[in-house]
Design goal:
Blueprint: E1 13-17, E2 30-35, H1 38-48, E3 52-56, H2 63-73, E4 79-83, H3 88-97, E5 101-104, H4 108-119, H5 129-137, H6 143-148, H7 152-162, H8 167-174, H9 178-192, H10 197-206
Parallel strand pairs: 1-2, 1-3, 3-4, 4-5
Helix pairs in contact: 1-2, 2-3, 3-5, 7-9, 7-10, 8-9
Length: 210
């Protein structure tokens, strides 16, 4: 990229899961590391703490499992999934696993803009995909009604999840075992009708629940 020709994605750092994407070099996104397996992905994310995780759904056979592992390990870091074709089953599986955004065959400018919006907490989908996701996954529950259903302990856990703490760190803070923390997280997800920690963080921030 030449000097003075900054792209919208300039300054955004990412860990890439899967093969190098042809649109990446001109997008202005700085790829800090690349991984394929869930274990390697979570290690890379923990080491580099990127702004974003990019997942190539085409080149990674276990992409959905990798997304789930990354979101569980680092719920505050959003996931942007990329594919060359709109396979609805794959799209829905990726979103249910915790992908914040999903693009089909983006150009460099489109990828850069979507990356910036995803890092800012927005969900971005290629044309036609948002309707599919909403139709299948459904809209979250009313925030005020749902919040009233949370116990005091669940509200405490929610606040610490939003702060980016792991289950072990939350357990230490609240005097709970990591497994008990995970149980509280799952209860909060169920009550708010959300599918992942990443969605939980976005939802809580957007609606002032934490």
């Amino acid at each position: 990229m030449t000097a003075g020709a900054a792209q919208p994605g300039s300054g955004i750092t990412a860990v890439l899961i899967g093969a190098e994407r042809p649109e990446l070099p001109a997008s202005g996104i700085q790829v800090l590391a690349r991984a394929v397996s869930a274990a390697a992905a979570t290690r890379s994310v923990a080491q580099h703490r990127p702004d974003l995780v990019l997942v190539d759904l085409d080149s990674t056979g276990s992409a959905v499992a990798v997304i789930d592992a990354v979101v569980s390990a680092a719920p505050s870091i959003p996931v942007l999934a990329l594919a060359t074709a709109a396979d609805h089953d794959t799209v829905l599986a990726a979103v249910r696993a915790g992908a914040s955004s999903l693009l089909i065959a983006p150009d460099p400018d489109g990828l850069a803009a979507a990356a910036a919006r995803t890092v800012a907490g927005q969900a971005v989908f290629s044309p036609g995909l948002a309707e599919v996701v909403l139709a299948e996954v459904g809209r979250p529950a009313d925030p005020l009604l749902a919040a009233r259903r949370l116990t005091d302990r669940e509200s405490d856990v929610l606040r610490l999840v939003v702060e980016g703490l792991t289950a072990r760190q939350i357990g230490t803070r609240l005097g709970l075992s990591p497994r008990t923390v995970e149980n509280h997280v799952q209860n909060v997800l169920r009550k708010l009708q959300l599918r992942s920690r990443a969605a939980l963080v976005r939802y809580a921030v957007e609606h002032g629940l934490a």
